[in-house]
Amino acid sequence: MADSLSYKATTIKDSFLQDKDEQLILEEPLSMRIEGNAYAVVMRTPGDEINHAAGFFLSEGLVSHPDDFTTIGYCTEDGVNVVTATLKPQRRKKVENLLDRRGFVSQTSCGICGKELIKDIHQIVQPVSQALHISYQDLGDCVKRLTDQQSLYHSTHGAHAALILDSQLMPLAFAEDVGRHNALDKAIGQAFMHSQLQQSRLAVLSSRISYELVQKAARARLEMIVALSRPTSLAVDLAAQLKMTLVVRRRNGLVTVFCGKNRIL
């Protein structure tokens, strides 16, 4: 499945114009339905739809284990971008309030919408464990592993990426997407659907860290986020309450730890 297309463009440098082909990342809507009802529509880069939806439903608190799904499938008919999922009866009963709610917790486009949404988030996330410790030097290796795999970014300069690592800093899952939320959902979904979340310990992100990304990482029980851009204030507040570590590691080697510095050796 294509994840980019070639477009005609004109470059301008020192008053010289040059026509050339440029690769642009694809962006298309994906509808997610659960228990027969529409739940969310996200703008994303095509590919990895099952894992994307699984990671999204995990972050929303609708599932906690792959076995919570009775079915999850993606319609492959041309022009139809829909993932549908059904839950086992015992899980459906447990999350009835979430299924009945209008909208969804991960407000990926408009940001946070009031105190009620913050309350919703705190109901589905819990403080993470304190098992991970890595060195300052390891942070640079984590970022390099992310950037080395960003083939879609290198061709389009328009993709975000997320990498999931275990406690030994071995890669478990990787994804790229036009949306930073989608990239993390896809990577978490890969680990989730392959029953590897137990080993997952940290996420490396190409983007800034928003509160939604902290929420998603916490639902996956990740202890640390390493990113290339600064977090928002609400992201730090939420991560601190969840005992997570937020680190920004610039390409020039500068490291800034915003919370959870006890995990950095």
Low-pLDDT residue intervals, each spanning 5 or more residues: 105-115
Output the CATH homologous superfamily of the largest domain. Answer: Cytidine Deaminase, domain 2
What number is the mean pLDDT? 88
Q: Give helix % range.
A: 25-40%
Gap between N and C termini = 42 Å
How large, in whole angstroms, is the Cα Rg?
19 Å
Multimerization status: single chain
Bin the strand percentage: 25-35%
| Helix and strand element order | EEEEHEEHHHHHEEHEHEHEE
Question: How would you write the strand order of the largest sheet?
Answer: 8-7-9-10-11-12
What is the CATH first-level class name of the largest domain? Alpha Beta
Reported by name, the CATH topology of the largest domain is Cytidine Deaminase, domain 2
Q: Number of helical segments?
A: 9
Structural class call reads alpha/beta
Indicate the topology.
Elements: E1 4-13, E2 16-25, E3 28-34, E4 37-44, H1 49-59, E5 69-74, E6 82-87, H2 89-94, H3 96-100, H4 115-124, H5 136-148, H6 151-156, E7 160-166, E8 171-177, H7 180-193, E9 200-205, H8 211-219, E10 224-227, H9 233-241, E11 245-249, E12 255-259
Parallel strand pairs: 3-6, 9-10, 10-11
Antiparallel strand pairs: 1-2, 3-4, 5-6, 7-8, 7-9, 11-12
Task: Give an overview of the whole structure.
By secondary structure, the protein is an alpha/beta fold. The protein is built from nine helices and twelve strands. Helix 1 crosses helix 7, helix 1 packs across helix 8 and helix 8 packs parallel to helix 9. About 5% of the residues have low confidence.
